[in-house]
Design a protein that fits this description.
The chain has six helices and no strands. With 196 residues, the protein is an all-alpha fold.
Length: 196
C-alpha cells in the first residue's frame, strides 16, 4: 500500500491549502491579541540564545510576535508562500515547515547575539521562500520553476535585505538559517517523478 496522499482534485487541494494558511495566519493574530491582553506574557516563548531551557521554545517561538506591526509584516508573505508550498501536498508541507521551524530555532539558539529574545514567523517565511525558489529546479517541474522565478522576482529584494547583518532590529541569523533549511527541504522532500 502506498504512503502517498489520497488523490484530491486540484480544487480540493487548493481549498485545503487556502483554509490551512488563512487559519494559520488567523492563529498568529489571535496569539498576538492574547499576548497584548496578558501584558506580553507570551513574549517569554521567544528564544534566548545559548540557554538549554530554551529548547522547549523552539516551536512556539515561530508563532509568537512582538506587536501587531510584527504580525502584519509577516502575514502576507506567510500566507502566499505557505499557500503555494501547501499546494504540493499537506503532509509534505507539514514536514517542510517542521524542518524549517526546528532548524531555524536551533540555529537561533546557537547563533543569535547574547541577551536577545527572538520570535516570529520570519524564519519560516525565509525557509518557504527558499523551498519555493529551489523546489521547481530540484524536481525539474516547469510549473515549479515558473513559481520559483515569480516568487524570487517579487520578493527576492526584500529577502536579500532581511539577510543583511547591518539590520540590527531583525534576526538576520534566523532569516539565513531559515532560508538554508528551506533549500535543504527542497532536496529532502522533493517529489519523485512518476514512472509511466
Amino acid at each position: 500500500m502506498s504512503d502517498a496522499e489520497p488523490e484530491w482534485s486540484q480544487r480540493d487541494r487548493t481549498m485545503a491549502a487556502a483554509k490551512l494558511m488563512v487559519g494559520w495566519v488567523a492563529l498568529l493574530w489571535l496569539l498576538e491579541v492574547a499576548d497584548v491582553v496578558s501584558g506580553h506574557a507570551l513574549d517569554g516563548f521567544g528564544i534566548m540564545p545559548r540557554t538549554a531551557s530554551e529548547l522547549v521554545d523552539i516551536v512556539p517561538a515561530a508563532f509568537i510576535h512582538f506587536g501587531f506591526a510584527h504580525v502584519a509584516a509577516n502575514s502576507v508573505p506567510l500566507l502566499v508562500f505557505g499557500f503555494l508550498a501547501a499546494l504540493g501536498g499537506l503532509r509534505r508541507f507539514a514536514a517542510v515547515c517542521a524542518l524549517i521551524i526546528v532548524a531555524d530555532g536551533l540555529g537561533i539558539l546557537l547563533m543569535a547575539p547574547a541577551n536577545t529574545n527572538t520570535a516570529g514567523a520570519s524564519g519560516l517565511i525565509f525557509g518557504l521562500f527558499g523551498f519555493l525558489v529551489v523546489g521547481g529546479f530540484v524536481e525539474r517541474r516547469p510549473l515549479g520553476v515558473l513559481v520559483g522565478l515569480l516568487v524570487g522576482a517579487i520578493w527576492g529584494g526584500s529577502i536579500l535585505m532581511g539577510l543583511a547583518p547591518t539590520q540590527t532590529h531583525v534576526s538576520w541569523q534566523g532569516h539565513l538559517i531559515g532560508l538554508a533549511a528551506g533549500v535543504a527541504a527542497a532536496f529532502l522532500f522533493r517529489r519523485r517523478a512518476v514512472a509511466s
